[in-house]
Amino acid sequence: MGNLTFNEFILKININDQKLDKLKIYFNLINIWQKKFNLISKNSFKNIWERHFLDSYQILKLIGDKKRVLDIGSGGGFPAIVCAICSNNFFTLVESNKKKCVFLNEVKKIIKIKNIEIYNSRIEDLKINKNYDYISARAVTSLDKLLIYSLKFYKNGMYCIFLKGKTFLNEIKDAEKKFEFYYKIEKSITDKYGKILLIKNIKKK
User: Domain 6-204, what fold?
Assistant: First the structure.
């Protein structure tokens, strides 16, 4: 993984100047709030345009446009904020950490992001259940736990999009002890060990 600059990041994506400006404002807000809250790790902040922005952006090729996405454990807003700024998809962000939700709401207000809603809640306690097209999660928890959380919202035809690291095969094996599911593995463009898991047809064993 290289140290991607903002100018190099621009060359790898396809969005207009208005959206780029919003991404820059988002970056500046992270930079300010990072000093108060631990939004992302200090080490990954050095390589934020690749490790967080591009890593998040890459799932848009799988989601498409004008879809409804439930994002589990949204943290500082990756991937949901980046993807919401760069597309016409609608994201429901669910984050249990109150401080991070304060940050997310500030980002929504300042950048005027209309295609997101934010819930300060554990995913297990979330009462809403809309007709989502996708469920996403990035750096949240193990695959078997993600499938437990997802099952409550899962409907036939939906896909789960989970960004995973080099332990993904072990996580799949562990999840297969509890669930039946179809999965497809996509390579990450930001990490040679990283994978994007596309999962559907989830059933408890």
Answer: Rossmann fold (3.40.50)
Does residue 79 have a cis peptide bond before it, meaning omega lies within 30 degrees of 0? yes
User: By mean pLDDT, which of 33-37, 89-93, 197-201 is the weakest?
Assistant: 33-37
Whether the CB-CB separation of 164 and 197 falls below 8 Å is answered with yes
**How far is residue 50's CA from residue 56's CA, in Å, rounded to a whole number?**
9
Structural domain boundaries of the chain? 6-204
On whether the pTM is more than 0.90, the answer is: yes
- Please report the pLDDT score of residue 2 as a whole number: 57
d(CA 77, CA 133): 19
Count helices and strands in the chain by DSSP H and E runs? 10, 7
- In the prediction, which pLDDT does 42 show? 79
Q: In what order do the strands lie in the sheet with 134-138?
A: 116-120, 90-95, 68-72, 134-138, 159-164, 195-204, 179-187
| Separation CA 48–CA 161 (nearest Å) | 21
Contacts of 142 (CB under 8 A, 6+ apart): 171, 174, 175
Query: Where does the pLDDT of residue 148 fall: very low under 50, low under 70, confident under 90, or very high at 90 and above?
Result: very high
